[in-house]
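SEVERITY: medium
COMPONENT: batch folding queue
REPORTER: lab tech (J.R.)

DESCRIPTION
The queue accepted two submissions in a row. Attaching both inputs and their returned structure tokens so the on-call engineer can compare them side by side.

ATTACHMENT 1
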Amino acid sequence: MLRITLCFVFVSGVFWPAGLASQQERICDLLSSQEINSAGFTGTRVSYLSNPHFTCTDGTEIRADSSITYESSGLTRLIGSVMFREGSEELHSDDAEYYSSLGRLQAKGNVEVEDKMRGNIIIGDELSLVQESLGSPEDLMTVTGFPAYAILTPPKQAMDASITYSSRIDAKLLHFVGDRILQATGDVTVKRDSLELYGDSLELFQDGSSTKLFSNAKITYKHSTSGEPINVNGDSVNMLFSNNRLDLIQSMGQAEATYGNGSIYGGLVDIYFKNEELERISSRGALPSSSEQEPGDIQATAISDFTITGDSIDLEFTGDRLVSVTAVGGARGASFPDGASSLDQDYPFLQEDWIEGDTVVIVFSKPQDRDTSDTIESDSEDTTIEQMTAVGRARSFFRRPVDTPINSDSISTTTMELNYVRGDEVKIFLTDGQVRQMEVENAQGSFLQPLPRADTATVTGVEINLSYKEDR
């Protein structure tokens, strides 16, 4: 917090009895005043000054249009164009009241506190300051407004010389604990370069190491390279920085993060960065997706061109490209490939390909050389599945289109080969989204193909359904 706490001792130095004034650390002198009036006896005197100008032994300067001092209560009122200056720090307001016995300052009207050296500024309608004392080891300052706001820059000794930034915090109430912590409540908004933060309340360490949002927390962050936004929501969100670079966003409660064409949900979502570029996202313990879901079914969920669930999920990135997904604990990965047939409507389990196990790993292929102007193709290739592996009570089911139609004289209908397998470990290798190879340890399962006759679709559908139920 800006060090303005000792700017007001002039009251004791100018108007208080010598015995009390000698207890103060600083003495302030009245340099000039257009008019001075005093009434009453020592200890109960009331003094009036017009356009007072004070300077103190520590270099503090105080000005106002007028002032009134009440010796009995230890109150000094400064009225009109109030200014306190100490070094590079200044406080401006329309009016101010200072209680010397309590070490408390109240300022009202167009309040502005500025540190011109660091570039910090605090704006509001009212300010309350309780000075450091035996009962309060740090200064406590509260600024309110509609809204109040602060622009803060971490201390120079905490900054990476190659990075300069400031944060603007808007809120209905700003509370400063010394020079360490800023707490804000009421429609909180924070903007810092490519970061935007929103929440009902906030706690920010002024050294730039940590920021926490509480209730209805939301963060938007843009990649410095790709420009793709990352959006994070949660009951509360914690952000950690080192050397002024973003290291971690941690969302808790009803946590959700979206990136590019994907999203991930859980009770806890951690997003890790390296040099402020997305490196990894992990999730644990998602909330139920419906009221019918049992607590034991609550899992983390990641959705892209596929859906994967598990007790925990890890997404690995290189740059802005998804490289792999690992789900652990009741893991399941599912996709909805092209080539759906009319059978899918009658047998819902035919609508998706899936793989299950204690652990499921999905690996994505690297983008190939191509025309960079074809952005749609580029996005699709970046998330093309190359390999799927399930370990521990592994099972998989996938479909593959048959090259030859069932009945070339009838309306064209896509037909499928159906593969169901289980084992200790299942590996599926894909090329251009199509299965080309499978490796299974201790395999059991079924492989079904359509028969070359017109009614194959109906017959095969019944056989698949029975086989599926029995094998499960």
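ATTACHMENT 2
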Amino acid sequence: MDKTLIEPRRLSILAFSLLFTYLLSFLFEGQVLYSLTDHFRVPSTTFIFTAIIAHFVGLFCCGFFVKTPRAAKNAMLYGIGISLAGSIPFFFSVSFLLWEVSLIACALVSGGAVASWGCFLKSWTPKNERIKTCADVLIYSNIMMIFINLMAIYLSPFIGLGLSMLALILAGLFTALLPVTKEQIAEVSDAKVSLSLKEPMLFLILFVVIITINSGLMYQVFNPAFEHLTWLTSWYWAVPYIVALIIMRNLPTKVKRSYFLYVGMAMIMTSFIAFMLLDRSAVSYFVVDTLMLGACGIFDLFWWSIIGEMLEHSDQPVKIFGIGLSANVFGVLLGGLLGSSITSLNVSSASVTVIALTVICITLAILPPLNNQLMLLLKSHTYLMAYSTMEEKQQDKIISSTKVLDSDFLTEREQEVLRLILGGKTNKAIAAELFISENTVKTHVKNIYSKYNVSSRAEIISTLLKNQILEQSL
């Protein structure tokens, strides 16, 4: 059992970390791409924004076409292969158009590959562990990105590009080893019918887009202001981000991570204020970058892990994961365009700070309703916890006193199955406990759903327990 759980999870972490390393170091405003454009003396702005837009499209659209584990694996492998081929022209001084087309192709299919990994995040990482898996891939990919950036800046952009492509090759090898058979996935992921994710997703997307505008501003305003400190920016840039991820990953479960969102917002505000008041020395960069990237680490892990938990409530993990991350990319794009305009117009740092603080104020207004929506969706399992901690007599009283909508009671066997469903048991576990076949369990579950006019465990929780368990436990 341990091997089944651990090995595929490790493979998925390795595969995605390496894929993401390629994205961060090359395609997505990576130092390799900047170094290549500097080497060939071509403007980078068009390439940067083209890649971001194409990556956004790949993330957003992939889930509408990729709906099975096999298709997700193929999408990752094809994306990696096409990205490898599309990276080759950047070794040569070729036409601007070929670079543009290659970059669009690489960013588009890599976006699809990233979205497809959502299927494996759901399949091979237990729901309560997804925050750690998300933290791991972000930490590993950023550490490897720093190394590749240093090689590109201090040795050669072609060495950096070669290392990015090597990461991509290794990502393909690990992806090829990922198991995708229905039987293997069923052992660690009990498929659920989709809950209504519309409102929580909309609030989360709005929150991510707006807060990430500051990241785009950082790329286009902060980084150029300190570009003379290459010796420092080349390696320190992502260090606070990694440290924040490590801290957030290893917080005790009893610590409320939501408090850190407000800490992160305060850090962003302080970062922009420091950018306005301080000079452009190394010490100033250290202060500004530490605050800004530390906050980015807090927020990134927040929405990555939230999206990871949302996968539990959907039978379309690629779509949920892709659309969720596309919000991040769209926010960076908006912030980048805003920052580029600010730079070209020579807007003062004070005005930049006012814009950033306005963004933070809007984000603060969104956070309470977002929290309410997420609580309704993800904390529905507290109903399960409330039920499972009750004495058996209380559990029996709740089930026996609850009539179905057509005034029929559940059969004795259906009550036993319902009790185990409310205890969080999968069909397989219920079958083992009641010494019946899994198909028989499915039949009982179908009958229960029919009598309650629901279609999933989540709706059973909401319908049966939300208004009854909480009332009796208060």
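NOTES FROM REPORTER
Residues 217 and 339 are 5 Å apart (CA to CA).
No errors were logged for either attachment.
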